[in-house]
Fold this protein.
Amino acid sequence: MTDATATDVSRHDRQGRRATLSRHVLPYAMLSPAVLVTLAIVFFPMVQTAWMSLHDYVLFRPNDFDWVGLENFRTALSDEVFWISLRNTIIWMGTTIPAQLLLGLVTALLLNQEFPWRPVARALIIIPWALPSVVIALMWVWIYDSNYGVANEFLLRMGLIQQSIPWLADPDYALASIILTLTWQGFPFFAVMILAGLQAIPRSYYEAASIDGASAWRQFWHITLPGIAGVMMTAVLLRLIWVANSFDVIFVMTGGGPGYATHTLPLYAFIKARTNLDFGYGSAIAVLFTMLLMVVVVFYLRRTGKAVS
Amino acid sequence: MALHRPSTMRRILTVDLPMLAILAFTLGPYLWMFLTSISDQSTLFTEGPSLLNATLENYTRLFRTVGFADNLLDSFIVAGGTVIVGLSLSVTAAYSFSRFEFRAKRILMLQFLLINMFPLVLLILPLFVLMRVLGLLDTHIALIVANSTIAIPFSIWMMVSYINGIPRSLDEAAMTDGCTRLQALRRVVLPLCVPGIIATGIYIFITSWNEYLYALTLGGREVRPITVAVQTLIGEYEVQWGLLTAGGIVGALPATVLFLLVQKRLISGLTQGAVKG
C-alpha cells in the first residue's frame, strides 16, 4: 500500500517535472527553427552589409578587402549623384504614397456604396497588385513608347498635347511617368485596406448623425475619417517600406536614366554593386538609405502616436 | 453612407461612373497588353494593336523558340520551394507565439516585425556575396533562400493571426483527453487553420513568383525564372512588343488566377490586424 503510494507520488512528481520542463522549453523549441533561419539569412547578411560598407570591396579584386572606416560614407556625402538620388527619392516616395492613399481612399469610398456590380468591381480592382513588377514595368514602357505608345496617341487625340512626348526618355517627365505607374500599381492595396476599415464603422453612427442633421461632408469628416484613421496609418507604414522596395520597376523602366533623372538611393546602391561591382560603396549607400528610412518611420510612428504592437 | 436613398440617376453619376473610370484606369493597361499580345507583329507598328487579325503566333513562338516552358518550371520550383520553407518554419513558431507566455516573446515578435521594415537593397548585396562564397549562385536553392527572407516573417505574422482565431479551449480539451502539446497542434489546431495555411501559402507563392531583383542577381543563366526571362525578351535593337506582352500575360497569369481564387480570405487575414489595431 505504502509502496504503491510512493511510486504514485514519484510518477506524479516526474510527470509534473516533465510538464514544467516542456512548458519552459517547448515555446523556444518550436520557435528556434524560424529564429535560427532568420538569423542566418536576414540578420547575418544585414550585419555583413554594414561590415562591407566599412571596407573597400570591389568584386573583381576579390583579394582586397581593406578596412577604410567611414571613407565610403564620406565619399557618398561628396558624391553629386548621391544627392541627386536623395532628391529623387524624396520626390518619388513623397509623391507616390500620398497619391496612392488619395486614389485608394476615393476607390474605397466608392466601393463602400451600394451598386449592382460591386462584387465584380471589388474583385477586379486588385489585379494590379497581383502582377509581377517586371510585367508592370514593361507594360508601361510600351504604353509610354514615344512612337507607338498608347499614352501619346490618347493625349494627341484628346488634343491635350500637340506632339508626341518621349515620356521615359525626357528627364523632365521620366520620374513623373514612373510615379504614375507606381501609383497605379499600389493604390488597390490602400483601397482594400481602407474598405475593410470602412466596413468596421458601425452603421448606427451614421444613423445618429443623420438624425442630428449632419451633412454628408460633416459625417465624412467626423465619423468616416476618424473611423479609418488607424487603418490608413498602418497602410501608409506598410507602403513606405513597400515603395522603398519597388525600385525594381524603376530599374526595368529606365535603369535610372535618362542621365540620373530617375536615380533613387536604393537603385543607386543596386547599380553600384551590379554594374560597377563596387560592393563596399553600394553597401554604404544601402546603409545610408536604410538609416534615412528608419528616421522617417520612427518620426512617423511618433507623430501618429501609435506603437507597433 | 447617408440613410436617404439617392435616386438611381444620381447614383449612376456619383458612384457608377467614377467607379467605371477608376476601373478603366486599373484594367486599361492590362487589356492593352493583352491586345498587343494577340496582334500580328508585322502590322503592330503600322496599324497598331487590334482585334482584327487576332493571332496566337506570339504565344506559340514564346514556347517553341524562346523556351518559356523551362522558365515557367524554374519559377514554379522557386515559388513552391519558398512556400514549403516558409510554411514549415512558421507554423510551429506562430503556434508558440499564439499560445505560450515566455520571457523573450515580445522581443522575438518584434524581431519578426522589424525584418519587414528593412529595405530589400540592404539584403541583396550580402546575399549575393554569401551565395558566391557557398557556390550556390544560379541555383534554385539560392533563390528559395532569398525569397524566404520575406516569406518567413510574413507567414509568421499571418499564421499568428489565424491561430489566435482558434479558441485556446480546443487544444486544452485535447490535452485533457491525453494529447501532448504537439499532438494537440497536429490533430486539432492544424486542421482548423488549413484555410489560413492555404491562403498564406498562396500569398508566398505569388510574391515569390513575381519576385524579380533576387532572381536577376542570384540567378539569371541556368536558373531563369519567368520575370527575368520576360525582361530579356527586350532585344538589343528592336523590341518585339508582341512577344514581350505575350510573355507578360503568361507570366502574370498563374499569380492572377491564384489571387482571384483566394483574395477574400487573404484580404481579411491581411487587414484583420490593421482594423483591430
Remarks:
- The radius of gyration of chain B is 23 Å.
- Chain B has a mean pLDDT of 82.
- Residues 28 and 273 of chain B are 32 Å apart (CA to CA).
